[in-house]
């Protein structure tokens, strides 16, 4: 029997989102398979060398939203140089991950597995950059020409060792100090595409499942591996609801409602026939 692939989970975080980190630790992080999966929170610490401290990987990168591209590439470079893995799964700290479903995702069939493509409005994106005080870099056009769409990264994606090596090689050959975009999903997709690695879409990673945080959806729609974005409260609520006994209670309640509804219909029919 083949041994399971070694997976590193990189959870994009920062020093300001301790509440999210605690919610992840209290919920889905407890369900990680101990044999082949290890997870690290990715936190920027510019000007200082990379360091592993418990479940946190401090990186010599910005710890800001506009520095996400640098942080993710710094993480991939660190993993490539210091960690043993076959695949890396990257997600955000406001993403709920169901590892039972994630293990069923066919990520081994591709070097780059994502949940969905998002349409990219170039004029709006350029305006957003200007509002953030960033100038449009001509090299960004190379990363934007992807049929007007790109894989959304917050909900999580898989990259193989080959894909990580492609990112590391591209970054080492970069002749400029500033990355083409502050959006890490656009940068990673662009690097891999320029290296001949196309994204494969698996809907289970799409993450857009707002229905599971509604009170009436305790046991419905389990065919997802990630949910994004969710608050710390929603993360705990989702985790609690996915326990087997909660599902049994929910099914029992639905069964009682079904019996009650049909009993009322039967009584009405009896009255009408009488």
Summarize the entry for a quick read.
This protein has 274 residues and is of the alpha/beta class.
Fold and architecture overview:
The protein has 274 residues and is an alpha/beta fold. The chain has a single domain, classed as Alpha-Beta Complex (Spore Coat Polysaccharide Biosynthesis Protein SpsA, Chain A). The protein contains 9 helices and 12 strands. The chain has an 8-stranded mixed β-sheet with strand order 3-4-2-1-5-10-7-11. A two-stranded antiparallel ribbon has the order 6-12. A two-stranded antiparallel ribbon has the order 8-9. Helix 1 runs parallel beside helix 8 and helix 2 packs across helix 6. The longest helix is centred in the last third of the chain and has 30 residues. The chain is globular and about 85 Å long. The termini are far apart.
CATH class: Alpha Beta
Distinct helical segment count = 9
> Count of DSSP E strands?
12
The CATH architecture would be Alpha-Beta Complex
Order of helices and strands: EHEEEHEEHEEHHEEHHEEHH
Number of discrete domains: 1
Indicate the percent of residues in helices: 25-40%
Main sheet attributes: strand count, strand direction, barrel closure: 8 strands, mixed
- How far the N terminus sits from the C terminus, by CA atoms, comes to 67 Å
List segments where confidence is low: pLDDT < 50 over at least 5 consecutive residues. 215-221
Mean pLDDT: 85
Estimate the global geometry from the Cα principal axes: globular
Strand order across the biggest sheet? Answer: 3-4-2-1-5-10-7-11
Helix-strand makeup class:
alpha/beta
Strand percent estimate: 15-25%
Oligomer: single chain
What is the CATH third-level topology name? Spore Coat Polysaccharide Biosynthesis Protein SpsA, Chain A
The radius of gyration over CA amounts to 22 Å
